[in-house]
Amino acid sequence: MKLHEKAQGSAGREKGRDRIRARRKEGKMAIYCDQTGYLPQSVKKAVMTAGKTYDVIRVQGASEQTVLSGSTQDAGTDKASGDHLYLADFSEICQEGVYYIQNEEGEKSHRFRIGQDVYRALQADLIKALYYQRCGCALEKEHAGEYSHPCCHMDEAVLWEDRSVSKEVKGGWHDAGDFGRYISPAAVAAAHLLYAYTLFPDSFTENLNIPESGNGVPDVLNECRYELEWMLKLQDEEGGAYHKLTALRHADFIMPQDDKDPFYLFPVSSMATADYAACMALASRVYKAFDASFADRLYDAAVRAWNWLEKHPEYVGFRNPDGCNTGEYGDDCDRDERLWAAAEMLITTGDAAYQTKVRELLKEDLTKTDFGWTDVSGFAALAVLTDKSGIAPADIVDDLRAAVLAEADRLTGIAGVSGYGVAMEPEDYVWGSNMVVLNRGMLLVLAALISDDKAAYEQTALAQLHYLLGMNALDYSYVTGHGEHAYMHPHNRTTECDGIDLPMPGWVSGGPFKTPADDVGRRHIPAGTPPMKCYLDDAACYSLNEITIYWNSPAVFVTAYFNAGVR
Ligand code: 9MR
Ligand code: ZN
After folding, report:
1. Quick check: 13 pLDDT over 60?
2. Which of 16, 69, 145, 339 sits a CA distance of 20 to 30 A from 88?
3. Which residue in 268, 281, 267, 283 sits closest to 227, CA to CA?
4. pLDDT in tens, 227-240
């Protein structure tokens, strides 16, 4: 099936565009809320573009009952959306149930639920989505249902630098809407999951119906192992990690099993190798309790990658060779990756030699608070500040702690003046802005974990999830299958070509991007559109509506925190 032929395709998409145009028109009234729901003990707000009073209505079968009537608070004009906003605070309602909000003009919000478990199914779907990205195996009906498909990408890959050499490198997750597999994104996504599990194990009890389910290992670790086993194959003899494994050009819109283009192992980079060392060291700690020999293999890979880094103290970058258009994941600085690697090696081994490395790198101009594929310095803070063994010396702990709390305070400040409660400035709406939102949610969770005064951080972290799930200027839940108005048309080859109306649930969209890079986005989003509204639910919009493994994984981290019963 071609890109624009999907059921509910062009017609549905046109409707979507009309709806957004209407919403963008000044004065259009709307009420936005978290379409998934609210935890009973949390702060609960909805946002209106007009309206002085509101009712909260509880729905029980056919009966509806107004349980709260209140006056809105004028929140002024929100910078990122250009909307003048009015807040409806219904925090006092704690009773589990289904609700909606209505203002005096009769405008209604979507329905949402209040309940302790409102994010449980969401978290399970966010992880299960990764299963659907598995490469090098068939997705069997038993686990994938209607989304099943035969094996893909089974052939050996050719070494880019020596075409006479091929290697067996099957496995791993397709990175995104394309079929490439890239080391830094893989390491980052796996790390989000591994930290989430380590910190909030009680949130990972669901059986995800994946092939390994029921083997006594939490399914999040089963799923993550599929990626790690593939990563173990991506190391060269010297210990370096190949930057990526992709074809020369992105495939057409076809199912993965129909993609027969040759795949190449592109050269080793210092960024990929450092991410690799860090992730492998972390993973070796996590899997020790479940499978000691797997943990040893991971540890050995970490040490070999670390040795490579020692041997190559200089920056070894990666740029796409001429004619290659698959993801580049280029980065002109590898210091944050080296910091992450040193921190994980320190925590894993306890060896004082790594303290010196961490100290040296902490002196450099690094953020220490980011969890994305370009800047991984926040993982060093996560490693050190959540370690229970007391291995890291006080000066390192203090340095990272101060950086995390300062950033959390900055983010709380930004969220405090955003009508939508989102910790994003207008310029932060970059390609994959939902990752920025979620990574900031992670940082705020980390701040809550290490601070004695956690309420404000926790509340701001939760607001980032609310933004993702519908508390935003376009009224979208940016997670497929979750919320009454969830986006429907991810830029994902499999979803577009499988002939199934609904996308698989649990995919986080890249989200608004203030300067769209794809043609459809550019054509349909007028110049001057406020950043939070630069989005289209259109499968052609690869810069606005793609999915990636590392946009789902931070959402797992944030939901896992709130599913652990903290609120
Ligand atoms: O997520 C990446 C984003 O931060 C970059 O701005 C963008 C352009 O370089 O690339 C994104 O990554 C894409 C990758 O290159 C290929 N797979 C799909 C990724 C998501 O769009
Ligand atoms: Zn594949």
Report:
1. no
2. 16
3. 283
4. 999 999 999 999 99
pTM listed for this prediction: 0.96
84 CB-near residues (< 8 Å, 6+ apart): 49, 76, 77, 78
CA distance 436 to 360: 27
- 261/153 Cα distance (integer angstroms): 9
Q: Which segments of 242-350 does DSSP mark as H helices, in order? A: 270-287, 292-311, 335-349
CA atoms within 13 Å, Cβ hemisphere of 355: 11
What distance in Å separates the CA atoms of residue 3 and residue 127, rounded to the nearest whole number? 26
Name the active-site residue from 491, 496, 498, 538: 491
Please give the distance, rounded to the nearest whole angstrom, from the Cα atom of residue 250 to the centre of ligand 1: 12
Q: What is the pLDDT of residue 426?
A: 98
Residue tagged 């969890």 (tokens)? 371
For residue 443, give both structure tokens: 């940082």
| Residue 185 near ligand 1, beta carbon < 6 Å | no
Residue with tokens 């994010």: 119
Cβ(494) to ligand 1 under 6 A?
Answer: no
In degrees and rounded to multiples of 5, residue 429 shows phi and psi of -85, 75
Residue 95 in contact with residue 65, Cβ under 8 Å?
A: no
Q: Judging by beta carbons within 10 Å of its beta carbon (0-12, 13-18, 19+), is residue 169 exposed, middle or buried?
A: buried
Tens of pLDDT, residues 58-100:
999 999 999 999 999 999 999 999 999 999 999 999 999 999 9
State yes or no: is 407 an active-site residue: no
Rounded Cα–Cα distance for residues 119 and 559 (Å): 6
pLDDT tens track for 294-315: 999 999 999 999 999 999 999 9
The verdict on the CB of residue 46 being under 6 Å from ligand 1 is no
Burial class (CB in 10 A: 0-12, 13-18, 19+), 91: exposed
CA separation for the pair 399, 335 (Å, rounded)? 17
Of 182, 328, 329, 436, which is best to mutate to test ligand 1, by the most ligand atoms within 8 angstroms of its C-beta? 329
Q: Among 320, 546, 549, say which to mutate for ligand 1: greatest number of ligand atoms within 8 Å of CB.
A: 546
> How many other CB atoms sit within 10 Å of the CB of residue 472?
27
Q: Given strand 73-77, what is the order of strands in its sheet?
A: 31-32, 45-48, 84-89, 73-77
Where do we find the tokens 């002085």? 52
Residue 537: active-site member? yes
Q: Parallel, antiparallel, or unpaired: how do β-strands 53-60 and 31-32 relate? A: unpaired
Nearest 5°: the CA angle 266, 270, 273 is 80
Domains and CATH numbers, the chain: 33-118 (2.60.40.10), 120-473+545-563 (1.50.10.10)
**What is the per-residue pLDDT for 565?**
78
